[in-house]
Amino acid sequence: MATFTTLSDAIRDNVSNGQSIAMEGFTHLIPFAAAHEVIRQGVEDLTLIRMTPDIIYDQLVGVGAARKMVFSYAGNPGAGLLHRVRDAVENGWPRALELEEHSHAAMANAYHAGAANLPSAVFRGYRGTDLTNVNRNIKSVICPFTNEKLACVPAIRPDVTIIHAQRADRNGNVQIDGIVGVQKEAVLAAKVAIVTVEEIVDDLRALPNRNANTCILPGWCVTAICHVPKGAAPSYATGYYPRDNDFYLEWSRISSDRDRFLAWIEEHVLAHPFDASVQEGAR
Amino acid sequence: MTTISPKEYMTVSAGRLLRNEDVCFVGIGAPSAACNLARLTHAPEITLIYESGTIATTPDRLPLSIGDGELHDTALTTVSVPEMFQYWLQGGRISIGFLGAAQLDRRGNLNTTVIGGYDAPKVRLPGGGGAPEIATQAREIFITAEQSKRTFVDKIDFLTSLGHGQFGESRGTFGVHTKGPTQLVTDLAIWDMLDPDGLKVCDPDFQAQTAEFVVVSLHPGVTRDDVVASVGWTVRFAPHLGVTPTPTPLELETLRALHARSANTQ
User: Fold this and answer.
1) Is the residue at B131 inside a domain?
2) Is B216 contained in some domain?
3) Distance of alpha carbon B115 from alpha carbon A131, whole angstroms
4) Of A90, A105, A184, the CB nearest to B80
5) CB of A160 within 8 A of CB of A192?
6) How much is the pLDDT for B28?
7) Under an 8 A CB cutoff, do A26 and B131 touch?
């Protein structure tokens, strides 16, 4: 059964040094507020898992919170490269970053396998690509029925998955509208799941025009629920606020310089602890 | 009508490759503009699919990212990312994959991973994303990119997404039986994947081991020397070199209006 808690307590109680963490949300509903709390609490040596590291992991990598990143597309979507990730890979700043690089198809299948409690994912993929030469976790199996050689990657089983959603109800049931990405699989594959939400309602069943298909997780699959309005900004939440495309473009400028990046983190993350009293009031 | 830019020639010519009945997996950037221009002009029924899970999406503006809200809001349906790659792409439901690249070679192999060596790259690029499986599982691949010696190279630094492999190989070498790259549209020219006899990929006697991208049409005002100067390999030209048809007023007006509506995302 999900417990309702503040964001700072949820991170303190569930996230610790050295863990593997997936913060998912495919362009939509990226859990930025939770990542910023991880930065404020100074968690280190993380293995960060995410299909599209996006600005959220550029920030975590830039402050040196990660030792390894498992990913399939490390760009600033629509705006170019991720400069903090580049600096870590190309120059080891602020620390070296080990990469485990996949394709989207492989990551999606690997989360699916994790949710399905399988040891690995089997799919038709990675044919002819050099990725097989640089990632030891890309292997193959022979289909026992057709003899077709298929790609095989280990299931993703994060210690902790963090996602953001539009709504939860008092029983912790989670609703997502819009692009659903890989969040359900990432939560069900994890040992512990933290969900931040725009809004907490009494009962999803009682909502006008409610659609049962949009409830992606029953409360008993979730460890902690935190009420965090605008918790996905500068990404977006369908029905609440749009993607801040200007900020995504601006991030290229902020992140291209180490000092400018650190100043931004100081001003916008470290100097602004998440305010639990505001959170309670909003709820 | 003002002067037509090389990039407008590229987008319009790329869009013309698409047909009304296509189911097209759309890469972001140049492919996205071409695919939406096709939908807004000659192919209104085309099914555009983005890897964020949006199927039959009809955005009014070009998205900045492959997961912008407008792609969902205007889609027929949105599915999860595992479903997108398992049922729709791997399931063989995609007729065209439309891709761009940071580096490509004359065999249509694409690099979006690194410039330089993998372990100590000169430039760490974003990586493959959906492209490695789009390149092998969509039934046919179109590529669009602006020509430069940085992009059009004799040897790519990393093979992210398979075209036709190295000379002497074919897609079959890797157990891949889709057509792969058949056409390449740039800001200067249109290229076809042709073997030394001039046969296309769809021809039963096509010799994949010796095929390469061959210039078949120059955009008006472009010379052979312009093409050669922006490509890092020895360029082959078709014996009967065509001239790319000029964009129609409708195509140009539609493209410019699309870009104007998308001003803050481009």
Assistant:
1) yes
2) no
3) 14
4) A184
5) yes
6) 76
7) no
In a domain, residue B12? The reply is yes
SS3 label, residue A277: helix
Q: Closest by alpha carbon to A229, among A161, A177, A283?
A: A283
For B35: left if phi > 0, alpha if psi spans -120 to 50, otherwise beta; the answer is: alpha
Amino acid identity for residue A28 in this structure: H
Name which of B157, B104, B156, B114 is nearest B135 in CA terms: B104
Across the beta sheet with B54-55, what order do the strands follow?
B77-78, B54-55, B47-49, B23-26, B96-99, B140-144, B181-185, B189-194, B212-218, B237-243
Selecting from A26, A181, A242 the residue whose C-beta is nearest the C-beta of B69 gives: A242
Residues of B in contact with A246 (CB under 8 A): 264
Instruction: Tell me how far apart the alpha carbons of residues A186 and A110 are, in angstroms, rounded to a whole number.
Output: 9
Q: Which residue of B has its CA nearest to A103?
A: B129
Q: How far apart are CA B266 and CA B259, in angstroms?
A: 7
Convert the pLDDT of each residue in A137-163 to its tens digit: 999 999 999 999 999 999 999 999 999
Nearest residue, CB atoms, A104 vs list B51, B71, B123: B51
Residue stretches of chain A with pLDDT short of 70: 274-283
**Which chain B positions have a beta carbon within 8 Å of A178's beta carbon?**
69, 72, 78
Q: Is residue B195 included in any domain, yes or no?
A: no
Nearest to A184 by CA among A165, A169, A168, A200: A165
CB atoms A181 and B160 under 8 Å: no
Please, which residues 182-211 of chain A have a Cβ atom closer than 8 Å to chain B?
Answer: 182, 184-185
Query: In chain B, positions 1-20, which contact chain A (CB-CB < 8 Å)?
Result: none
**Cα B198 to the center of its chain, rounded Å:** 21
- List, as ranges, residues 153-212 from B with C-beta within 8 Å of A: 158-162, 165, 171, 173-176
Q: Which residues contact B2 (CB under 8 A, 6 or more apart)?
A: none
Assess A243–B contact: CB distance below 8 Å, yes or no.
yes
- Strand pairing report for A98-101 and A66-71: parallel
Inform me whether the C-beta atom of residue A164 falls under 8 Å from chain B C-beta atoms: no
Per-residue pLDDT of chain B (266 residues; tens, 9 = 90+): 579 999 999 999 999 999 999 999 998 778 999 999 999 999 999 999 999 999 999 999 999 888 899 999 999 999 999 999 999 999 999 999 999 989 999 999 999 999 999 999 999 999 999 999 999 999 999 999 999 999 999 999 999 999 999 999 999 999 999 999 999 999 999 999 999 999 999 999 999 999 999 999 999 999 999 999 999 999 999 999 999 999 999 999 999 999 999 875 54
Whether A179 sits inside 8 A of B82 (CB atoms) is: no
Chain A residue at shortest CA distance from B30: A78
Full residue range of the structural domain in which residue B167 is found: 6-188+247-265
- The answer, for A214 touching chain B at a CB cutoff of 8 Å, is no
Provide φ and ψ at A4, rounded to 5°: -95, 130
- Counted domains in chain B: 1
Q: What was the ipTM of the complex prediction?
A: 0.96
Residue B73 is part of a domain; what is its CATH number? 3.40.1080.10
Residues of B forming the active site: 51
